[in-house]
Amino acid sequence: MKKNVVQVEIKGIVPTNADAAIFVGNDKKSFVIYVEQSMGEIINMFLNNIHKERPLTHDLMLNIFKGFGIEVMHVIICELKNSTYYARLYLKQQNELGTKIVELDARPSDCLAIASNVKCPIFVTASLFEQIEDMSQFLKNPDQP
């Protein structure tokens, strides 16, 4: 898998008038995934280890996973179709019957929220990473050259 994907991280979250721009990338390139403002706030909370008194939906999902002995392995942002990103969530369950790995189709926003909550790796397929435009310049601090 390592040669077909590029590891990335959430580089920043910028609120816009209608949504939130999630900058995802590495030292070479960053790209933007637009999500609902509330999802941007949730991802930011998880990145900063801030948790609500009551569980949010992503917390509930993780509690269910924990109850069934399921570990979030990683997420992969895998495709871009008609300006919409697609992602996959990879889960692993080990028990007395053996090990089972499940790959689920999921919105990138949900994958990024879960990944930021459990601190698991985020990947982008190498072919997608090559084709997307570098948006790093829009995330730089204005005081930097």
Can you characterise this structure?
By secondary structure, the protein is of the alpha+beta class. It has one domain (5-138): Roll (Bifunctional nuclease domain). Helices cover 27% and strands 43% of the residues. It contains 4 helices and 7 strands. The protein has helices at residues 37-47, 57-67, 108-118, 126-131, and strands at 5-15, 19-25, 30-36, 70-81, 84-95, 98-106, 122-125. Strands 3-2-1-7-4-5-6 form a 7-stranded mixed beta sheet. α1 packs parallel to α3. The N and C termini lie far apart (36 Å). 26% of the residues are buried. The mean pLDDT is 92.
Describe this protein with a few key phrases.
Bifunctional nuclease domain; seven-stranded mixed beta sheet; 4 helices
Concise overview:
The protein is an alpha+beta fold. The protein has four helices and seven strands; from the N terminus they run βββααβββαβα.
What is the total domain count? 1
CATH fold-level topology: Bifunctional nuclease domain
Element-by-element helix/strand order: EEEHHEEEHEH
The tally of beta strands, per DSSP, is: 7
Instruction: Return the structural class.
Output: alpha+beta
CATH-level-4 superfamily name? Bifunctional nuclease domain
How can the largest sheet be summarized?
7 strands, mixed
Query: What is the end-to-end distance?
Result: 36 Å
**How large a portion of the residues is in β-strands, by DSSP E?**
35-45%
Strand order of the largest sheet: 3-2-1-7-4-5-6
Rg calculated over all Cα atoms: 16 Å
Write down the overall geometry: globular
